[in-house]
Amino acid sequence: MQTQPHAEEVRVVSAAELSERPQGETGGELSDTELAEIYSFAIQLGRDAGAMLLNSLHRRRRDEAVGTGPEEETVLEEKLNAVDIVTETDREVEEFIHSAVATRYPSHAFIGEETYSSGSTKEYLVTDAPTWVIDPLDGTVNFTHSFVMFCVSIALVVRGKPVIGVIHAPLLNQLFSACKGKGAWLNETMRLPLLGKVGVGPIPRNAPSKCIFSCEWGKDRKDEPDGNLHRKVDSFVNMAAEVGARGGKGGMVHGVRSLGSATMDLAYTAMGAFDIWWEGGCWEWDVAAGTCLVQEAGGLLTTANPPEDSQTADIEDAKLGSRLYLAVRPACDNPGETAREGQERLVREVWRRVRHLDYSRPGVA
Amino acid sequence: MQTQPHAEEVRVVSAAELSERPQGETGGELSDTELAEIYSFAIQLGRDAGAMLLNSLHRRRRDEAVGTGPEEETVLEEKLNAVDIVTETDREVEEFIHSAVATRYPSHAFIGEETYSSGSTKEYLVTDAPTWVIDPLDGTVNFTHSFVMFCVSIALVVRGKPVIGVIHAPLLNQLFSACKGKGAWLNETMRLPLLGKVGVGPIPRNAPSKCIFSCEWGKDRKDEPDGNLHRKVDSFVNMAAEVGARGGKGGMVHGVRSLGSATMDLAYTAMGAFDIWWEGGCWEWDVAAGTCLVQEAGGLLTTANPPEDSQTADIEDAKLGSRLYLAVRPACDNPGETAREGQERLVREVWRRVRHLDYSRPGVA
């Protein structure tokens, strides 16, 4: 645990402010030594924040076991609608991370889910400056239910690219970490993908068949005939239905998984536990750390929305903040096909089966 | 680990054979002492079998890391279609459990997923006799992907009712166990539901809103307009859509989860981590242990298919082998409503939103 920093050092830096700063103060590339030092710091921060989540969970269990605590419904506060629960824990953990970062790296910018969501703008605020993008508790609903799939997510983003990512799921005892050029790791000892590129294999010839497809129902549940809920469900059914069904779109994936945590979905895609993750509507703090993990593990992250020429278009990296993501796991080469070619083939197979989602974002091209 | 038993003691006993046996040999109630002894045996069996799963996973990782093992695609064998993978591990673990049971309780019947599936009948074979109903590896696809949601499931069924249930998910370090009259437990020390009945709370007044809804896409992916896939998806969408949508059926559940393991879904419902589990198509070895867990924790397990008079019909316990299940978590009383009344209210709310699934079964009324 860090000692308490000076509170006045801790605040969200607006995009306008940052763009006015001289480059030397906030931008500029970090040296390898600086990056390595920040990586160690971020891992320790992830450990500490994860321990805070676990302590909070155990404290709640104890309180409720002896009947001194409030009932679950009263400790939760509703936000947006019944789906998005905010707990005190969210706020405490974000404050802890924010304070630690501000003490150690006072010149870095900071964007946290809780701080951001309580503000009035939905603009994309990440600039070229070194910026910490964190979610103190992803999978809040799971956390309030003692379901294992929750985590803290911590990323450092430089020039708009996540260069450090730490995801700690304390009840699973899984700490994922990655740093640009240093690979992606589980519990600091097992390199991702977990089975090695040979072990996770090439992208199957008949993919998305044989693939685990990970997706989320999200919070956007409006029952509009052509709304996001129905576009998502159409896409899920295309991926799931038997091969050849639905006008040739049936993908007969091996399995469909929904964990209730975009961050864990991405970590498991980096690991090779999931083959495909497709999602719209999530925010940069949900995916910043996971993006670094997927890319360092050798996976591919692009946009959820198929471009017009989806079978021939260049496959570009997803833009952080675009709210539209498609991730494909690391792979080894197939005979006659590189790993990247296999991944791109799978991206096009997914694009062929999914519909456009409507999640726009001010400030992202 | 048990020593190897005599192979000739180990075989599946047919329903016809059992019905011819004198009651004293196979039926009869077990005494409390006998039950307690069998419970200890079953927990140890669960531990050992879980350790075998974990060893197998680590061995595979090691083999593939050094490049001496076969590639993933060649160690897997297809059954039914691409979704249902059988690994050697399934067979080894079932053989281990079968042998241990036959040595210790030679008069007990035994039905295992692997042995059963390789037979020609799909009849329901559980009689009144003490019968072990086990799944050596539930969540096989997850296991082959190193995704944490896999487990061994071991149940003792007497007079058609599961009286002992053990579920061990070794990568999660979660061992769930229950015995008739002794409650349900996590890792033998934490009583289920995990937060206590007060902690999991009463069934929310506006349920299924605020509930985590757990469901699976399964393997039945035929694209028939009125087939099970579309009936399932219709039901999922009803549960998920905003309140009031879809002709009043919108349930706006808090979250939708799909883990790829019916057994884990049931364990998490017993724990209170999930509020609702609705599923058709699974088999008795998927649910026997989980049934005991849910019931001992104070949850409710009934049929997935709404009866004609779904808002007034008696709510009966699910029949083992019926392949149609709806589970509701343990709860405490609401002011003016008992826990059971709250659970029954939720069952009717789910029935109002889900469609009939078509999974018949020879041998089950």
UniProtKB/TrEMBL annotation, chains A, B:
Biological process terms in GO annotation: inositol biosynthetic process; phosphatidylinositol phosphate biosynthetic process; signal transduction
SUPFAM superfamilies: Carbohydrate phosphatase
Keyword vocabulary terms for this entry: Hydrolase, Magnesium, Metal-binding, Quinate metabolism
Cofactor(s) demanded: Mg(2+)
A Pfam family reported for this protein in Swiss-Prot or TrEMBL: Inositol_P
Reactions catalysed: a myo-inositol phosphate + H2O = myo-inositol + phosphate
Pathway noted in the entry: Polyol metabolism; myo-inositol biosynthesis; myo-inositol from D-glucose 6-phosphate: step 2/2
Source domain of life: Eukaryota
Gene3D superfamilies assigned: 3.40.190.80, Fructose-1,6-Bisphosphatase, subunit A, domain 1
Annotated EC: 3.1.3.25
UniProt: Mg(2+) binding residues: 113, 135, 137-138, 286
Gene Ontology MF terms in the entry: inositol monophosphate 1-phosphatase activity; metal ion binding
UniProt family annotation: Belongs to the inositol monophosphatase superfamily.
Protein name: Inositol-1-monophosphatase
Organism: Capronia coronata CBS 617.96
